[in-house]
Amino acid sequence: MKILIINGPNLNLLGSREPEIYGSSTFEDYFSSLQFKFRDVELSHFQSNHEGKIIDELHQAQDNFDGIILNAAAYTHTSVAIADAVKAIQIPVVEVHISNTSAREKFRHHSYIAPNAKGVIAGFGLKSYELAILSFLDLPEKDA
Ligand code: DQA
C-alpha cells in the first residue's frame, strides 16, 4: 500500500505556527513517527504553498500511489481547482485537518474538496493523519 500525504499552504510551518491550534511538533518529526508506526505502508509526503503545484502532484500521484491524504489547508475553503483535481483522479482522497474546522471561523466551515473526497477527518491534531492512514487499511473486525 502506497499512500501520499499532501499538505497545503503554511503547513511547512507546523511546530511554530499557532501552536495552540496546530501543536508544537514539526511535520517532519511527526512523519518519521508515522513511518515507524506503519512500517508496512509506503508513506510519502509532499508540501507546497502553491495551488498549481498541489494540482500537479495530485495528477501525478494517480500513477504511483493507492491513495492520498490531503490537507489542502486554506485552499480547502477557496479552491475549486483543487476540488476539480480531486474529482478528476482515479485514486481515493481522504481530506484531513488538524483542527476541527467546523468549530472555528465560519469561512472554515465550507470545504470545496469534501464532496469529492472519500471521507473527511478533522479535529484530532496531527493524529488526524494517522486516522486517515487507518481508513485505508483493512482492519480486523472486533468480535462482538
Ligand atoms: C487546516 C485548517 C484550515 O482552515 C487552515 O487554513 C489551515 C490548516 C487544519 O489542518 O486544521 O491552514 O487545514
Question: How do the strands and helices of this protein lay out in sequence?
Answer:
Elements: E1 2-7, H1 19-22, H2 27-37, E2 42-47, H3 51-61, E3 67-71, H4 80-88, E4 93-97, E5 119-122, H5 127-136
Parallel strand pairs: 1-2, 1-3, 3-4, 4-5
Bound molecules: 1,3,4-trihydroxy-5-OXO-cyclohexanecarboxylic acid.
Folded structure, characterized:
By secondary structure, the chain is of the alpha/beta class. It has a single domain, classed as Rossmann fold. It is built from 5 helices and 5 strands. The chain has helices spanning 19-22, 27-37, 51-61, 80-88, 127-136; strands at 2-7, 42-47, 67-71, 93-97, 119-122. β3 (67-71), α4 (80-88) and β4 form a beta-alpha-beta unit. The protein is globular and about 40 Å long. It binds 1,3,4-trihydroxy-5-OXO-cyclohexanecarboxylic acid (DQA).
What share of the residues lie within helices? 25-40%
How confident is the prediction overall: mean pLDDT?
Answer: 96
Examine the secondary-structure arrangement and name the CATH architecture. Answer: 3-Layer(aba) Sandwich
Ions and ligands: 1,3,4-trihydroxy-5-OXO-cyclohexanecarboxylic acid
What fold name goes in the CATH topology slot? Rossmann fold
Spell out the key features of this protein.
144 residues, alpha/beta, Rossmann fold, five-stranded parallel beta sheet, binds 1,3,4-trihydroxy-5-OXO-cyclohexanecarboxylic acid
Short summary of the structure?
By secondary structure, the protein is α/β, with parallel strands linked by helices. It has five helices and five strands; from the N terminus they run βααβαβαββα. α3 runs parallel beside α4 (80-88).
